[in-house]
Amino acid sequence: MRTLAAAALVLAATGPVLAAERPAIKVNRWQEDWSVLADPAKRTEPLDDLKYVPLGDDAFLSLGLTLRERLELGDAATFGQEASDTSLSQRLQVHADARAGAWRAFVMLEDVRAIGRRHVGGADADRLDLRLAFIDRVSQLADGKTTVRVGRQDFPIDQQRFLSARDGPGVRQSFDAVWVDWSRGPWT
Q: DSSP H helical segments within the chain, as ranges?
């Protein structure tokens, strides 16, 4: 019951995407841009005042929360030992996204637990950890958009076959790195 109440709270906090101008909730929450809510008339969903907190001229703060709970049932052969391993995998992420002009700072904390699991590995649980923390700057260069990002971040490249955020296990994967991206039209 507690799981359903928590899921309802998350859905109420994020709200459905009703208008084309509103961004979609994404798996990689740092990819969302809630600047469309600068217009107070577009703040129509519950908790929109947390998605867009004005900080002054061309600056705002966006706050968010993600809760994922997954019941895992395991019943593998263990050669005479107890085979059942049923557990609840829980991932809670809280983030803040501050933007001022071309500059941005993003921070996400993550708490991952494997409740009831007999054998807990490193990808299954991690109590309150700094998941993401980066700054970036967007500018124009050679008729294209350039983004330079420094800090702990995700790399969602293509179908994530070579480099992945590892969304299946409870603990997602992040990297400490410098990222430079240039795009112009269909080219990145």
A: 2-14, 48-51
Domain count within the chain: 1
- Torsion on CA atoms 158, 160, 161, 163, rounded to nearest 10: 110
Q: Is residue 133 part of a domain?
A: yes
Mean pLDDT by 10-residue block, N- to C-terminus, for the chain (188 residues)? 42 42 84 92 91 93 93 70 76 96 96 84 84 96 94 75 64 86 90
Q: Is residue 188 part of a domain?
A: no
Structural domain harbouring 161: 2-183
- Asked whether residue 158 is domain-assigned, the answer is yes
Q: What is the DSSP string of 132-171?
A: EEEEEEEEEETTEEEEEEEEEE----TTSSSS----SSSS
Whether this prediction's pTM lies above 0.90 is answered by: no
- Does residue 145 form part of some domain? yes
Written as six digits, the tokens of 64 are: 């968010």
